[in-house]
Structure prediction request, 608 residues.
Amino acid sequence: MSLLVVGSVALDTVETPFGSVKEALGGSAVYISTAASYFTTPIRLVGVVGGDFSEEHIKFMESRQIDLDGLQIIQDGKTFRWGGRYQYDLNVRDTLFTELNVFKKFDPIIPVGFKSSTYVCLGNIDPVLQLQVLNQIKKPRLVVGDTMNYWIETKRDELMATMRSMNVIIVNDSEARLLTQEPNLIKAAKKIIGMGPHVIIIKKGEHGAMMVTEETIFSAPAYPLETIFDPTGAGDSFAGGFIGWLARTDDLSTENLKRAVIYGSSLASYCVEKFSVDCLRDLSNLKIQDRFHAFRDLSRFDEK
Amino acid sequence: MSLLVVGSVALDTVETPFGSVKEALGGSAVYISTAASYFTTPIRLVGVVGGDFSEEHIKFMESRQIDLDGLQIIQDGKTFRWGGRYQYDLNVRDTLFTELNVFKKFDPIIPVGFKSSTYVCLGNIDPVLQLQVLNQIKKPRLVVGDTMNYWIETKRDELMATMRSMNVIIVNDSEARLLTQEPNLIKAAKKIIGMGPHVIIIKKGEHGAMMVTEETIFSAPAYPLETIFDPTGAGDSFAGGFIGWLARTDDLSTENLKRAVIYGSSLASYCVEKFSVDCLRDLSNLKIQDRFHAFRDLSRFDEK
Prediction:
């Protein structure tokens, strides 16, 4: 199935207790597309970069069969840059700087050839732009959306309008609580179902992820990593693995959604093992299957 | 198998956003014994109360086939009292008062008939007393121990000495980090293995529990409760369900330890549905099995 990904393309400067990288390839659209490319190709990416965006990054994305027809290159502009520092326990992140640059005026124009995409993944961008994207798509079979605290706080009404067109929303636990003003995550998820999406995925970092639908609650463990080099992009890698598997199988049954959550978790667990998208550069089906099985073994018990 | 439980017997005054109780039956030994009594009987309890301890509580424990030969009753003393208040999200607890009373001079004397107990559960008491208990037991097959931040901070050396005689230690995530000065929970668990116990169980509240041994990591989800009335005793109910199942089956294989974690989680999930030990008063094998299966369904996925 055809998969469209819209989001940021960025150059990230990241410091963690284990090292640092400067202006490494990043952004939600990059992580989502790269992760999804292990399940289905080509991936249709829509985003914007400046004239300073390196040819090397273009080549890498093309090597992952990411179709860049929708990547706007503003020659006299600069690419979006983000800088962040993770504290010792990696659960707390300080943003050091955000230079929106060409991203400030991002106008997501969907190329004609992308308008019939059946699977759509909306990375974390302004909900107004997310809706603008959806208005250009003919008849999507599945829309997966991400958001963040900033939009929940500053553009709640617009986000609510966009959420009515999402089938799946992926948020983290604090975002779910902020969105619903409800501390209990199960209750929060059920409230979000009333806002539009019928599948709610709550990412809980080191505690795994949870999927809530009208009929089911599914709990996915976190992969027990002893060393997390760089948590940047884990959520987007999850989204990419999740929608990539669904686009590949075109099966939206509850059972297959569960598998998609585990594939998402698998990609996220690989993502954090190196800086930037480095760990997503050379995955293989075998490695992904290995981790999928490791997830199964992690929570499996015999009843006797 | 014979199961000995040593810990506090208390009268708890608890406030939560859903109501309050005054001087309700509580204490680690009570929760552990009551939970374990659904798996194996009689349970041998060692603890201390004052002359004010109600006959009604004695009768309840006897009705659960808890052998009270080791319950010291100090007629001219008062029972240990604890008061706490849970905040809105139930993750934060403020201790309002602690009146140790007869518990201050608790000298855990193990009755002769209890000294051959094969399964021993040490509730959260001074590690010096925990060791004193173990020195009176002939040849335990399994020692499960609990502790808390207070002992880690004030009696680290004594705790380390006691831990060398524990086979299983049950701690929560913040205790595991405090004990090891290691933010990563997997690394923390592995460090604890080096301190004595070969099975480490880390309770993560609303995120479930994790068991780490030399050979395996097992992740148990949390049961998705929409309303938690009173979190008091959840950890002790977990310990009781865990050791109760092991004492009943006398099987210490990794596979059976996983089942024990799920039985512990099941009892803990029932415990928090009402105030005090109320939800543990009238459980049944059927209800426990139902929840055990619900835990299985929560994390199960088909591979296709």
